[in-house]
Structures are given as C-alpha cells and as structure tokens.
C-alpha cells in the first residue's frame, strides 16, 4: 500500500483546503469502501482527508418540516433516528439493512452515497475496465448476473451500490455540495450520472475538490411509502434488486407517485412507467401488480441477469403493497 | 481387550457434554494461532502469483523487488521456462520487515509471461476438438465400473428416467488462512504451521528442504479450520522456511483471502448424466451413469455413485476434466456430497414416477440394515421426530408466493483411523498430563484428551492437562477423513489405563491389597471389595516418592470402528416470486459409535450442516468465462451464510457405544444440500438438478415447471 498523508480538518473550509493539496487526495468518512480499495491497490491516494469531524454528523429539522442530514451521520444513527423512521421510513429501512452492524456503525451517509461500484470486475486489479481507464467492460460478455438491466447502453454495466440513494431520490431529496466556488444544491436525481465514455470513471457530479455535506429532505406531506429489498442473504450482502415507492395520496387514490429502483442501473432508476401506471388509480393489489409490470417495461437484460427483471418486478409490487398496508398476497 | 470401553459411570465425563477446555483461551484471544505468532525480528512473506490462467514464464527480474524498502529475501518458486497453470499459481515470494512492504515489493517482481491458451469451463476443455492445454491431455478417463446386467435392469423397469445433475466448485474458506511462521536456529527449523497434521507436515517439509526430519519441529497449538485443505506442507510453508533461511530471520507467510480462494484447494465440480430404471412397484432396477468433473489443473475429481441405494444392475464411467483453475484438495467428505446430490435428487424424481413417498421409496431400496448401515431405522426415527407425516405431495398448493416443503437424504462414511500414540504422566503431586502429537482443527480434539484420561483415572476433567499440536509429542496421524478421534482415543485410553495400573501397583502394598482389586473413582483409589482400604488420589500419588508414572500407549483394535451412517431432514421456504430459498429447519441423525464429548460431537454436526447449507445455496467459485480469472475471490461476493441465514438445526446423536469411537467430521456435511434441494422440489414441484440454488436457477426451474414469477 502506498504511504499517504492523513489530515484532520475540523470544518468544511479546512476540509476543502485540504482537498487541494495536489496529488491524489480522497476524503475519508467511515472508510468502509476506500480502505478496501486502497488495500486492493485500486486507489492509491497520496493524502486522506478525514471528514468525520469536518462535516456535520447530525440530523436536524428544517424550518419547512423536513430534515437535514449531515454527511457524517452514521448509518446506524440514521436507521434509528425516530424522526427519520416517522417521516421517511424507507430511508430508515434502507439504512438499517446496509452490510452488517459493524459496517453501519462505521459507515456514513456521505460514504454510502459516494462509494464506488461493487462490480466484481471493478473490484479486482486484474480487470482493467473502463472505470479504471481500460477499454473494456468485462461484464458485457462475462459474469453479469448482478449487473444492470436498465440504463445499460453506456460503456459500463455496473449497478449503483448505494441503498440510500434510492429512497433519497424517491423522497425528492437534494444534496448540498460545497466546493472552492461556494455551495450548491443538487437534486438527488441529478447527482448520479449514467456512464458515458467521457464520464465513465465517475458515478456522480461531485468534483474532486468538492464535498457532499448534507442531504436535505423536503417535508414528506401526506404520502404513503414502501421500500422492499430482495435479499438472497439476510445480512452482510447487497440487495439483488430493490424499490422505494413514495405515493402522494389523493383520498384513496394515488395523486402522484415516485417509483425508484435500486441495484438495477448505474444510477438510482426512476420508473416513470410505473409512476404513470399508478397515478389516479386506487391503491390495491391489482394496481400494484400492474405498476410492477410497468416498472420493468423496457428492461434490457444482459446474458446472465434476466432473472433480475422478475425480482425487480416483485420488489416494486411488494413496496407498493407495503405502502398500501396489504399483507399476505 | 484389557482397556475396553466400559459403560460410562455416573461420575464419568465420558459421553457427557464437556465444554472445550480451551474455550476461554479462544474467546479471550489468549490462544495463539499461527497468525498470532510473533517472533523477535520476524519478517513477512508475500507471494508473487500469476495473473494469467495459463502462461509460460519467460523471465523473472527480481532486482527492483530486492532494492525495495525493507526487503530481506526473495525466492523463486517456479523457474523461467516453466508454466503457470491457473490464475494465482505461485511464482515467487518476497520477505520484508512489514507485511505492507512485502506486498509492495512482491508487485515489483517483474515476471514476463508468454500467455497460452486456457480453459475455464469443463465443457470447452473436454470438447473433442479442444486444444490440448495439459501435458497428459485435457481429460483422463477412469475405470468403467459394472455390476449386474444393465440390459436386464432396464427391461425390468416400468419407468426409465434420464437427467443430468451437477454441483459446483467450492473452496474451503478456512477462517484462518494457510501459512506458517518459520524460524531457524542453526540447522534446526521450528515451524508454526496452520496444519491438520504436524507430523505429516514435518516429514514433507524436511523432504522439501532436504534436511533431516529430526531437525524440524512443527507446532500447531490452535488453528482456525482446515476441512482437508491443510494436510500437506504446501508452497507457502516451504517458501517461509526458505525465505527465513536466506534472510537469517524468522518469516511469517500467511495467505490472504484472495490467495485462499485461488490456490489453497477446493471441492471439485461433478456432472452426472444418469439413466435410471425403476419397477412399477418401486424397486430400483438399473443405473447407467456417465460422469465428469474438474479438480483443477491436473487433479482428479472422482466421487462415489450411485450413493447408498441399491441398484442391482449398474454401470458408471467417469472422466476427470482439467481446466486452468486452482487444484482441488480433500474437502470434508471428499466426493460424497457430489455423489449424494445426484443420487438423492434422482431418488425423489423416481419416487414421483412410481407415486411413492420418498421415505417409503428409500426404505424399499436400502442395503440391509447393519450397525454401520442404520439408514432405515434412522429414517423412521427421524421422520417421526421431524413430522414427515405433515409433508404434502410434490408442490405446495397453498395460495401466496411462499411455498414450503420437506426433503430428506442420507450419508455414509468410512473413517476409522489407527495412527495414534499417547503418553501419560502421573506426577508425584497428583497432577496428570496427557501428551499426544495430534492437532485440533477447531473440532474439540484437545478436550478429548482430559476426558478420556479423567474417565480412566476417576478424576474430574480439569485435573488432567492435555498437550497437543507439536512434533515433540508422540506421533499421531493427520486429522483428516474423520480419523483423528478414532486414531488417538484408543491410544489415550490405553496409556491412561497403563498409567492407572502402574499407580495401582505402586500403592497396593501400602493398602495391603492386590493391585487387581483396586478401583480409581471420584478422586480416590480403593479396594473394590473393601472400600475402607482407600487413599485420596493425591495421597496415592505422594507414595510415588520422586518417580512419577510415565507410560506410553498405542492404538490397538477393539476400541474404535470404521463406517457410520446418518440421515437428515430439511424444511424450506421458497419465494416463487424471487427464487429465494430459505432453510427453515434441519434435523440430523448421526451415528458416531461411542460419543466422547457430546457437546463437541454435536458441534461437528452443526458445522457440517451449516457448511452444506452454504453448498446448497450460496457458495460458487466463479471464473470469468473469457479471462479465466476468478471474479469472486473474497468473502463479499463468494457468499456464505451469516448467522441470520442459519436455520434451527437439531442434532440426534445415535449412540452406539459398543462400536467404540468413530469420527464424525465428514458425514454430517454430506446430505444437507441434497435434502434442501429435495425440499425445494417438494415445495414448488420444480426440479433443480444443479447447485447452488441461486435465485436465477430457482426462477428458471419454476418457469419451466409453469409456476413462479410475480403473480398478478
């Protein structure tokens, strides 16, 4: 492992200054992703900037009834926060299922959103793929059972690894980003990027000299929400496909819907098909099934992941049934 | 047999649940595993491995590595001109003052390769027009096995069933990786090795280093698993010794998880194309099997088939197929899980053809019952306990996406074991030491020593100290093939008996009785017919004066047996909308003759069952079909059950004390995966003939069976 410098800024400005030191600089939160990449020689930074003290580690109510979540909040605290559980249950559920208790006690919100892909080709030095400056995505004609079924016409077939990104997009969150030119607020849906040949080495719009500092969740209003993860193993594993649904109710029928799919595309994948299938409909088992079928319309399976289409459909259906409070179907 | 096992008395620890004597040491971290050995001035060795599945080494340039910070020695394992045969094949190794520096330096060793054609799949390697990649050919045909008359067998069949069954390659995934710490003192080598055989490792290490065996001492006090993968002095151990010699300093060389997956053994794949016949009344008539599998780049992949059930007319031909992948090593019941899977899944399919309950069908086709073949009785007892009568016919018809089902399966194992010596010292202060050069893989072997001696000497377990894991102790065999306990327990019992009798002889004159009338029990020695003639254990030992009792025992027949049988039942839940299988409960009935420690014997069964759940659902060594490199050499994408994936497991040890000691390491891991697969079939009506039961495979089978998928 390359020797590296380690700095401990105490506020955002110091952290931003530390990022500009030259060479390869990486911010480190819980380190659950970065340290493993360093040990595997996938990333060899000259300097680590510890942002655990520099960034906000609190969940704070906003003036308009939402919540502002600091990037340094630990997943375990997010999952257990009663305000999060009450207002944004899908966020709490997603946070509570990440990895293992050890990882949730160490990992942060910022780290979860900015972690690099878990694609097994990306994670091994031997495979010099597009994301590592190579000229090939090994998943295309290789072992692609865990790869994307949506948004996979670009160069890289990864799925985005963040469980939190999906409910954040579904609840209409935005991310506060600070950089040398000040701060900006980026809608969560615009933060993550589909790979192009120009952008394939990154998964989002965050610059190397920028920091994601907060997730700002708007007041949820009168919504019903559901979150369902299809997990092969109960813990210490990644969901094979999952969905968050947030429905703005208009009496017994759905006024508007957000249906966002996880582990199926290089970004949190919003299914407008499913949203249209729900809008104006009564929320019941039948509409849940119809919306689930609509959600996977246009899916494009790779050679070995057609089954993911089926389980994604199931995830959407079950998230909707959960939102509707229907059990045993 | 002078020291035949006696029915354990009420005060004897034998056959009771005794906690591991080293439990507190292990849970507190005081127990030192090979990985924990720290020697003064110790260096760290790391390997240079091939990134290619097949290549010729053109040249090796060590100079940059030799100049790297902290590097003290570099050793070549494979010379230029030789070939690497799989991703991860060892080429060279580096020793440096920190592990990180060793790893950095290993990456500076410049190996030039000429990349050669490779195969990552059995089917492509064995294709008739395949390029020859392996010197002796890509395949090796085994002996044709034939019994009875196949033509007659199929003529007598009312139903003939043909299908192909397959199981995947899995790796051992020992929690403690392979490796050693080697330290030279002049020409004498001390090697702390994570090994299943300290004595065997000494012999092989001495040969590899060309030094006298008497100059080598191997120590393994504690280890974190072996499962068959740690029975030889492999490259990392030999290289640690060579690097230590060159550097003039101790060297620790332990593999990391990736190396473990790539190059420390695995269970071979198995493919069985079977044609089987059954009569209208459910009698098996014929079995014709063509099988193949890979044990890697030149190793065999044999397995027993058909398994247990009696096909009077049968034929079987097997071919080993070589691919460019890490070589197999024995893995917990070598061959049996594979043969069990093909046979037991076939049995359920045949039972359906003749419309019989799988249990009744099996009972009809078992070999005659014997003490080492108790399947019939165990099936009946287990069925009662498990609630087999509540099993529905194939296909759960209850509404909703969650279907439940039950399955069963059997095992057999030979085991035995004769290589055991033990030494017992009864000290003049009454303390007792049992010494045996066996090793404890984590199975509880260490705890057996004081139990057996305490039973013989009439003492509590904690009055006896056991010493194991060192070639300075009396010879014992490899802990493999379920032979360790059956090999050492008789030796320990005999040594303890000889020691007790020697003590009796010394104290009898004082008590004024004949030594043959003495009994050792409850911490006392007394005359059987006159309990007033007695001494406490301590007082008796004081009579030894300055000369302790010091005797040796050696394995003799009569205290242990070969061959055992068992059966298992599984209940599962299948989500037909996701293909996810969840095991709800497992019941395991297992014979292991005379139980020495009930707690550790049961633990062996728990461990075996959990391993087999992993085999059934999760584990899969995946090679990239194009590059031949393993894609999941870690513990993230190589899936293993977490505690939350482990179901309720009930163990019924079917004691047969009259048979003496029989090992229990292998058999419990044989049948669980088959029982689970049969339970999935019972739940869904979909037959899955390949492991693991990954959701994609389950959904595919459900679709073929016309069910599954997201319901409307």
Describe this structure in words.
The complex is a heterodimer of chains A (about 325) and B (about 700). With about 325 residues, chain A is α+β, with helices and mostly antiparallel strands. Helices cover about 30% and strands about 20% of the residues of chain A. Chain A is built from twelve helices and twelve strands. Chain A has helices at about 10-20, 35-40, 75-80, 80-85, 90-95, 100-105, 110-115, 165-170, 190, 270-280, 285-295, 305-325, and strands at about 5, 25-30, 45-50, 60, 65-70, 175-180, 180-185, 210-215, 225-230, 240-250, 255-260, 270. Chain A has a five-stranded antiparallel beta sheet with strand order 4-5-8-6-7. Chain A has a four-stranded antiparallel beta sheet with strand order 9-10-11-12. In chain A, strands 1-3-2 form a three-stranded parallel beta sheet, with helices on one face. The longest helix of chain A is centred in the last third of the chain and has 19 residues, at about 305-325. Chain A is globular, with a radius of gyration of 19 Å. The relative contact order of chain A is 0.13. The mean pLDDT of chain A is about 95. Chain B is α+β, with helices and mostly antiparallel strands and about 700 residues long. Helices cover about 25% and strands about 25% of the residues of chain B. Chain B is built from 17 helices and 29 strands. A seven-stranded mixed beta sheet of chain B has the order 3-5-1-14-11-12-13, with helices on both faces. In chain B, strands 7, 8, 9, 16, 17 and 18 form a six-stranded mixed beta sheet that branches. In chain B, strand 23 and strand 24 form a beta hairpin. The radius of gyration of chain B is 28 Å and the shape is globular. The termini of chain B are far apart. The mean pLDDT of chain B is about 95. The interface between A and B is large, with 40 and 41 residues.
């Amino acid at each position: 492992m390359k020797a590296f410098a380690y700095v401990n800024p105490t506020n955002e400005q110091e952290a931003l200054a530390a990022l500009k030191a030259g060479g390869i600089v990486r911010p480190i939160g819980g380190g659950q992703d970065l340290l493993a990449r360093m040990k595997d020689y996938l990333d060899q930074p000259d300097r680590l900037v510890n942002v655990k003290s520099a960034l906000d580690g609190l969940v704070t109510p906003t003036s308009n009834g939402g919540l502002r979540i600091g990037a340094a909040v630990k997943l375990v605290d997010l999952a257990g926060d009663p305000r999060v559980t009450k207002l944004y249950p899908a966020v709490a559920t997603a946070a509570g299922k990440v990895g293992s208790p050890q990882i949730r006690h160490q990992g942060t919100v910022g780290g979860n959103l900015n972690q690099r892909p878990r694609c097994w080709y990306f994670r091994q030095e031997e495979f010099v793929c597009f994301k590592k400056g190579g000229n090939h995505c090994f998943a295309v004609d290789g072992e692609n059972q865990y790869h994307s079924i949506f948004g996979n016409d670009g160069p890289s077939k990864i799925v985005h690894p963040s469980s939190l990104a999906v409910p954040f997009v579904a609840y209409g969150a935005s991310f506060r980003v600070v950089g040398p030119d000040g701060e900006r607020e980026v809608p969560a849906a615009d933060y993550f990027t589909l790979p192009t040949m120009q952008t394939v080495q990154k998964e989002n719009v965050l610059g190397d000299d920028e920091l994601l500092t907060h997730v700002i969740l708007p007041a949820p209003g009168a919504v019903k929400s559901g979150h369902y993860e299809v997990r092969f193993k109960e813990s210490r594993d990644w969901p094979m496909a999952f969905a968050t649904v947030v429905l703005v109710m208009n009496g017994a029928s759905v006024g508007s819907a957000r249906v966002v799919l996880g582990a199926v595309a290089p970004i949190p994948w919003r299914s407008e098909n499913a949203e249209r299938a729900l809008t104006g409909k009564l929320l019941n088992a039948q509409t849940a099934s119809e919306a689930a079928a609509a959600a996977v319309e246009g899916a494009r399976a790779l050679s070995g992941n057609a089954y993911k289409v089926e389980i994604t459909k199931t995830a959407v259906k079950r998230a909707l049934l959960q939102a509707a409070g229907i059990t045993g179907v | 047999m002078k020291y035949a096992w006696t029915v354990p008395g009420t005060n004897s620890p034998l056959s009771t649940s005794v906690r591991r004597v080293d439990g507190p040491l292990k849970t507190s971290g005081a127990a030192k595993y090979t990985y924990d050995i720290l020697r003064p001035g110790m260096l760290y060795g790391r390997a240079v491995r091939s990134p290619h599945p097949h290549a010729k080494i053109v040249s090796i340039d060590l100079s940059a590595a030799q100049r790297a910070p902290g590097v003290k020695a570099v050793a070549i394992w494979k010379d230029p001109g030789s070939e690497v045969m799989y991703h991860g094949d060892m080429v060279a190794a580096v020793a440096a003052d920190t592990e990180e520096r060793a790893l950095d330096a290993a990456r500076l060793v410049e190996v030039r390769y000429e990349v050669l054609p490779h195969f990552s799949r059995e089917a492509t390697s064995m294709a008739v027009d395949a390029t020859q990649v392996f010197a002796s050919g890509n395949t090796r045909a085994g002996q044709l096995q034939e019994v009875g008359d196949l033509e007659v067998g199929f003529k007598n069949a009312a139903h003939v069933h043909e299908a192909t069954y397959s199981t995947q390659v899995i790796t051992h995934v020992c929690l403690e990786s392979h490796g050693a710490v080697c330290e030279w003192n002049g020409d004498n080598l001390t090697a702390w090795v994570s090994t299943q055989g300290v004595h065997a490792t000494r012999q092989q290490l001495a040969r590899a280093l060309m030094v006298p065996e008497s100059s080598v001492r191997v120590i393994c006090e504690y280890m974190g698993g072996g499962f068959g993968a740690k029975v030889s002095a492999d490259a990392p151990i030999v290289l640690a010794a060579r690097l230590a010699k060159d550097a003039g300093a101790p060297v620790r060389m332990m593999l990391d998880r990736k190396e473990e997956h790539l190059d420390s053994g695995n269970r071979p794949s198995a493919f069985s194309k079977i044609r089987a016949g059954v009569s209208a009344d459910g009698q098996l008539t014929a079995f014709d099997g063509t099988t193949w599998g890979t044990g890697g780049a030149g190793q065999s992949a044999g397995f027993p088939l058909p398994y247990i059930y009696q096909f009077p007319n049968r034929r079987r031909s097997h071919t080993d197929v070589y691919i460019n992948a890490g070589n197999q090593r024995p893995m917990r019941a070598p061959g049996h899980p594979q043969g069990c899977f093909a046979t037991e899944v076939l049995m359920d399919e045949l039972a359906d053809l003749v419309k019989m309950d799988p249990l009744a069908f099996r009972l009809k086709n078992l070999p005659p019952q014997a003490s080492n073949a108790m399947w019939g009785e165990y099936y009946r007892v287990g069925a009662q306990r498990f609630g087999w009568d509540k099993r529905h016919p194939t296909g759960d018809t209850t509404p909703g996406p969650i279907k439940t089902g039950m399955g069963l399966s059997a095992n057999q194992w030979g085991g035995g074991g004769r290589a055991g010596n033990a030494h017992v010292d009864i000290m003049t202060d009454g303390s007792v030491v049992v010494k045996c050069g066996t090793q404890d893989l984590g199975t509880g072997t260490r705890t057996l020593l004081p139990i057996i001696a305490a039973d013989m000497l009439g003492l509590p377990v904690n009055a006896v100290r056991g010493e194991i894991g060192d070639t300075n102790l009396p010879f014992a065999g490899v802990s493999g093939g379920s032979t360790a306990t059956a090999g050492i327990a008789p030796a320990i019992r005999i040594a303890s008996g000889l020691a007790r009798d020697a003590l009796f002889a010394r104290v009898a004159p004082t008590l004024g009785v004949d030594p043959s009338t003495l009994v050792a029990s409850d911490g006392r020695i007394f005359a059987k017919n006159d309990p007033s003639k007695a001494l406490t254990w301590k007082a008796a030992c004081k009579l030894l004066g300055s000369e302790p009792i010091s005797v040796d025992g050696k394995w003799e027949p009569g205290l242990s047996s070969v061959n055992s049988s068992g059966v298992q039942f599984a209940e599962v839940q299948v989500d037909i909308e996701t293909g996810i299988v969840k095991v709800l409960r497992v019941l395991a009935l297992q014979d292991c003759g005379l139980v020495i420690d009930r707690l550790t014997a049961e633990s062996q069964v728990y461990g075996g069952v959990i391993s087999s759940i992993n085999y059934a659902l999760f584990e899969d060594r995946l090679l990239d079909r194009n590059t031949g490199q393993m894609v999941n050499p870690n513990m993230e994408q190589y899936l293993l059950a977490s505690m939350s994936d482990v179901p309720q497991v009930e163990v019924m040890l079917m004691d047969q004390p009259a048979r003496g000691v029989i090992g229990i390491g292998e058999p419990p891991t044989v049948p669980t995966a088959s029982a689970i697969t049969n339970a999935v079939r019972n739940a869904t009506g979909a037959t899955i003939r390949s492991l693991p039961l990954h959701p994609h495979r389950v959904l595919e089978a459900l679709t073929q069976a016309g069910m599954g998928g997201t319901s409307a």
